[in-house]
Design brief:
This protein has 489 residues and is α/β, with parallel strands linked by helices. It contains 15 helices and 24 strands.
Length: 489
C-alpha cells in the first residue's frame, strides 16, 4: 500500500525521505520489524521506541512514524514522518491498512464502569436471534462466528482492533458489539472509524491510580470521548454523572432508565425465584413497550436488559425475539448459576472489588435467602485497601464468609487473607478461612443449607490462578464438578 494512502486524514511533517514510497506492513512492536514496513513509535509506561529509531531503521523499516523530532538517520533509505500523537496516528493508519473494515458493518460501542460485558452478550444474543451475524469484542473474549479468541485487553490496541474488524467483515458479520474501556478511549485505540451507536451504562470511581486515570474527572472525561465518536448515543438517564459524561457530545442522544422521564423506561419490577433461577420480570414503556424477564437477579440486571433493548430497537428486532433472547442469554462468570443441589443456589460472579461485591450481595439479599454465603479472596500485588473494603462489605452483608485465595501473584496467600480479616474485624460477620480455593468450595457445598444462596466471587470467567508469575489452569466450574464427584463418592 502507498504511504500517502495510509496517512490520509492525518496532519504530518516529513522529516526525512519521501512520502512517495510503498509500505508492505504496519508494525508497532520493535521485535517484529520487517523490511519495507511502516513502524509506529509508541511511548509506553516503561519503554519508548523513539529511543530505538536507528536500530529500527537498521532492521529494514522503510518508514518510521514519530511524535517527537528525532535526529536524521544517516546511510539509510528511510522515511521519517512526524505526527502530533503516534497512538492516534496508529489508529488511522491501521484502519486504512485493513481497508476500513468498520465501514462494512454496524459498530456498537459500550462504555461504563459496570455492565459492559453482560450487555454485549445480551445484544449479541438478541441480534443473532433476529438473524444478524454479530461479532463481539470484550473483556472475556472476541467472537468471530464459531471462533472464540481469549482477550488480552477489554479493548484491543487499535491495530489489533482493526485486524479483528477485518476478520469479522470477511467472515460475513454485519454487526460488531464491543466493550470500550476508558483506557482505550484515552489511548486513541478506537479512532479511525465512527461508532454507529455509543452506549453509556453507569459510572463509579474505578481505574484511578498509577498507569490508569489520574483522578475521577479524568476517568469521566475519557468515558465521554465516546460521544464525540458515534452517530447515536444511548445513555443511562438515571446515572448522576450522565450529563457530565455526554457534555459536548456530537451525536444524537436518547436515554433509558427506571425514572419516568427517560425515553425508554422499565417499570413494575418483580423478583422471580425458582429452583436454580433468581431473576427479574419487568415491563417497558416509551420507545419500546413490552414485558420482559431476565434469568439473573438484581436491579442491575434490569439496567443491562434495558440497555440491550434500547440498542436492538434500532435494528428493528421484534419484541418476541427480544423476550426470548433475554431469557436465554448467559454470560460466563457474570451471575452464572451452577446447579449443585435442589436445596440451595450456587453462583459464580466476577465481583472483585468492594463496589461490585456490595452491589451483588445487596441484590441477592432481596431474594431473602436462608443464608447468604460469600466465598472470595483478593489479588496479590494490588491495593491493600481493596482487601480491607471487600472484607468489610462481606462481613456486613453476607451471613457467612469463606475467605480464600484468588490470584496471589507474588504475595503469600495467607498475608492477603490476613488483610481481608482486618476489614472483616470492623463487622460482626462470621467467617472461616480456607486458603486452598478448591477446599473452600468443597466446604461451601458440603455446608450448604436449604434456601441458601452461595456466591463464589472474584474469579468469574477466569480459568487460571496466577502464582509467582505462572498461570495455572483453574476453572471454578471444573473445581465444582470435581468436588461433587468426590463428595458423592
Amino acid at each position: 500500500m502507498e504511504l500517502k494512502q495510509l496517512l490520509n486524514g492525518l496532519s504530518y511533517t516529513v522529516l526525512q525521505g519521501s512520502e512517495e514510497v510503498h509500505v508492505d506492513k504496519v508494525v508497532y512492536d520493535n521485535r517484529k520489524v520487517e523490511e519495507h514496513c511502516l513502524f509506529v513509535c509508541i511511548k509506553g509506561m516503561k519503554y519508548d521506541t523513539h529511543d530505538h529509531v536507528e536500530e529500527i531503521a537498521e532492521k529494514g523499516a522503510g518508514v518510521i512514524l514519530v511524535e517527537r523530532e528525532v535526529a536524521p538517520i544517516e546511510g539509510k533509505d528511510v522515511t521519517l514522518i512526524q505526527v502530533e500523537d503516534t497512538r492516534y496516528a496508529l489508529a488511522f493508519v491501521s484502519a486504512a491498512y485493513f481497508g476500513h473494515p468498520a465501514d462494512k458493518m454496524k459498530v456498537i460501542g459500550i462504555t461504563g464502569t459496570k455492565g459492559k460485558t453482560t450487555t454485549t452478550y445480551l445484544v449479541r444474543s438478541i441480534l443473532e436471534h433476529a438473524g444478524h451475524k454479530v461479532g463481539l469484542i470484550g473483556t472475556i473474549e472476541s467472537i468471530i462466528g464459531q471462533e472464540h479468541i481469549p482477550a488480552k485487553n477489554t479493548t484491543p490496541e487499535s491495530y489489533v482492533l482493526q485486524e479483528t474488524f477485518a476478520k469479522m467483515a470477511e467472515a460475513g458479520m454485519d454487526t460488531v458489539v464491543m466493550e470500550v474501556s476508558s483506557q482505550a478511549l484515552m489511548l486513541h485505540r478506537t479512532q479511525g472509524f465512527v461508532f454507529d451507536y455509543g452506549i453509556f451504562t453507569n459510572l463509579e470511581p474505578d481505574h484511578i491510580g498509577e498507569g490508569e486515570h489520574k483522578d475521577f474527572e479524568d476517568y469521566m472525561h475519557c468515558k465521554g470521548l465516546l460521544f464525540k465518536q458515534c452517530k447515536v448515543g444511548i445513555v443511562n438517564g438515571d446515572d448522576a454523572h450522565t450529563d457530565e459524561v455526554i457534555k459536548g457530545h456530537t451525536c444524537s442522544i436518547e436515554k433509558f432508565g427506571l425514572n419516568p422521564d427517560n425515553d425508554l423506561v422499565a417499570e413494575n419490577l418483580r423478583l422471580v425465584k425458582k429452583p436454580g433461577e433468581l431473576g427479574v420480570a419487568f415491563s417497558t414503556k416509551g420507545l419500546v413497550e413490552m414485558d420482559a424477564h431476565v434469568a439473573t437477579p438484581g436491579k442491575f440486571s434490569v439496567y443491562n436488559a434495558l440497555t440491550a433493548i434500547a440498542i436492538c430497537r434500532h435494528f428493528g428486532v421484534k419484541e418476541a425475539d427480544m423476550k426470548k433472547a433475554l431469557l436465554q442469554a448467559k454470560v460466563k462468570g457474570r451471575i452464572e448459576m451452577v446447579k449443585v443441589s435442589d436445596d440451595f443456589t450456587l453462583l459464580i460472579d466476577y465481583a472483585h472489588n468492594a463496589m461490585s461485591l456490595e452491589s451483588l450481595l445487596l441484590s441477592l439479599k432481596q431474594y431473602e435467602p436462608n443464608r447468604l454465603v460469600c466465598l472470595f479472596g483478593c489479588g496479590g500485588n494490588r491495593s491493600k485497601l481493596r482487601r480491607y473494603e471487600m472484607g468489610e462489605v462481606s462481613g456486613r452483608l453476607a451471613d457467612f464468609t469463606i475467605i480464600t485465595s484468588d490470584n496471589p501473584r507474588f504475595e503469600d496467600p495467607q498475608d492477603i487473607i490476613n488483610d481481608i480479616k482486618i476489614g472483616m474485624a470492623k463487622t460482626d460477620g462470621k467467617y472461616v478461612e480456607i486458603c486452598d480455593r478448591k477446599e473452600a468450595i468443597a466446604y461451601a457445598i458440603a455446608h450448604g443449607e436449604p434456601g441458601d444462596i452461595i456466591v463464589l466471587a472474584g474469579k468469574g470467567h477466569e480459568d487460571y490462578q496466577e502464582i509467582k508469575g505462572v498461570k495455572y489452569p483453574m476453572d471454578e466450574r471444573n473445581l465444582i464438578a470435581e468436588v461433587l464427584k468426590e463428595q458423592n463418592g
